[in-house]
Amino acid sequence: MAQRAAIVTGASSGIGLEIARMLGEEGYALTLAARRPEKLTAAADGLRAKGLEVQEVAAALSKEEAVKAVVAAHEQRYGRLDLLVNNAGVGIGAPVAEIETKRLDMQLDVNVRSLVLFYRECVGLLRAAAAEHRGALVVNTASISGKRGQPWLSVYSATKAAVVGFTEAMNKELATEGIRSTALCPAFVDTPMTDFAKAGGVAAEAMITTRDIAEAVRMLLKLSPACLVPEIIFERPGDPL
């Protein structure tokens, strides 16, 4: 059995993959989950090539049964869960008069519903880890737009505000048991998800890096059980408040 184990969703690229890489460096056995099997397997193979302990579970995380399958596969392989990274997310921009119901539901299901389901399905394993070392952790990828709602990205902003709010609620509910939660709220990060901003003139080199995000999570791993960080806001120099 691994001494530490983590689930990372949305792990086939970008922030999720970088956090997974960092966790592997820290000795965590990993279950990676994402929607596209080929892309996920390529990401997992890349980590395994570095000698990391990794399994992947391709799953449409908007579906309840898929969430249950990821957690069941993780428990069967590793038997423990010390860290849950709810990183899977989708953002689809549109002015309010043109919001499509299908795309509205997709963002609600992936960005909010799956996060709630992962907490529900993982809380037993997290409680077991917390009873052992009081250092169980859940990291939820939100967004700066969850703190400051953005036009055109209104639905995405609303879902990420929900992530921040749910994180706060989970700390009030679980932190005294040794399960702490942190919401990550970055501005533009250099990932495929921000290609629209690059096309609009924001240079990739002017964006936050995925390594910046992963290093913040590494810091969270080092904190004492007495220290709770409910959220981390990542801004770019010159960004309007």
What does this structure look like?
- It is a single chain.
- The protein is built from 7 helices and 7 strands.
- By secondary structure, the chain is of the alpha/beta class.
- It has a single domain, classed as Rossmann fold.
- It has a 7-stranded parallel sheet with strand order 3-2-1-4-5-6-7, sandwiched between helices.
- α2 links the parallel β2 and β3.
- α3 runs parallel beside α4 and α4 runs parallel beside α5.
- Belongs to the short-chain dehydrogenases/reductases (SDR) family.
- InterPro entries: NAD(P)-bd_dom_sf (IPR036291), SDR_fam (IPR002347).
- GO terms for molecular function: oxidoreductase activity.
- Keywords: NADP, Oxidoreductase.
Explain the layout of strands and helices:
Layout: E1 5-9, H1 14-25, E2 29-34, H2 37-48, E3 54-58, H3 64-78, E4 83-86, H4 101-133, E5 136-141, H5 154-174, E6 179-186, H6 195-199, H7 210-222, E7 231-234
Parallel strand pairs: 1-2, 1-4, 2-3, 4-5, 5-6, 6-7
GO molecular function, one term: oxidoreductase activity
Keywords: NADP, Oxidoreductase
InterPro entries: NAD(P)-bd_dom_sf (IPR036291), SDR_fam (IPR002347)
